[in-house]
Amino acid sequence: MIVRVACAALHGVDAFRVDLEVDFARQGMPAFVMVGLAEGALRESRERVFAAMRACNLRLPPARITVNLAPADRRKSGSGFDLPLAIGLLAAAEILPQGCTDGWFLLGELSLTGELKPVPGVLPVAVRARAEGARGMLVAADNAAEAAVVEGLPVYPVRSLGEAAAFLAGQADIAAVPSDGRAAWERGPEWPVDFAEVKGQEHAKRAIEIAAAGAHNLLFIGPPGSGKTMLAQRIPTVLPPLSFGEALEVTTIYSVAGLLDGQGLITRRPFRAPHHTVSDYGLVGGGANPRPGEISLAHRGVLFLDELPEFRKTALEVMRQPLEDGVVTIARAAVSLTYPADSMLVAAMNPCPCGYRTDDRHACTCLGPAVQRYRARLSGPLLDRIDLHVEVPAVPYEDLRGGLTGSTSAEMRGRIAAARAVQAARYAGTPCRTNADLTGRLLEEHCALGPDEHAFLEGAVRALALSARAYTRILRIARTIADLEAGQAEQALAAAGPIRVAHLAEAINCRALDRERL
Question: Mean of the pLDDT values across residues 186-213?
Answer without folding.
Answer: 91
